[in-house]
Amino acid sequence: MIDTDAQFAYGIFWTAYAVAFVIFFYMMKRLFRIVPLYAVQTLLLAALVALLLTPVESQELAGWWIPAWLYGGYEMILGNSDEAGRALFNLSIAGLIMALIWILDLVRYRLTSR
Question: What are the φ and ψ backbone dihedral angles of 101, each rounded to 5 degrees?
């Protein structure tokens, strides 16, 4: 069982991670404006979202979620390929979902730009 201090630290981590992601996302959005094609701009932003916001549940503690890129990279360094593969699987599922959303956004953009 996890004590209250650990739960509080977990909440602070995810709050700080979310705030940092929002700031980083808007900075990258402004940077990607130099790309001339709307489709490429949104593809880069979708890849950023899928890569940084995909969680994976910790093997050590049920109910605790960790960013998949961080967990997968750490487990790969430690040599635990099963856990790194699980994180990569979550990343690939998130990538497929973001690809679907990206395609739907391109259809919306095409229909409204006429």
Answer: -65, -40
DSSP 24-84: HHHHHHHHGGGSS-HHHHHHHHHHHHHHHH-EEE-SSSTT-EEEHHHHHHHHHHHT-HHHH
Single pTM value for the model: 0.85
pLDDT digits (tens), the chain, 114 positions? 678 888 899 999 999 999 999 999 999 999 999 999 999 999 999 999 999 999 999 888 888 899 999 999 999 999 999 999 999 999 999 999 999 999 999 999 999 987
One-letter amino acid at 6 equals A
Phi (first) and psi of residue 62, to 5 degrees: -65, 140
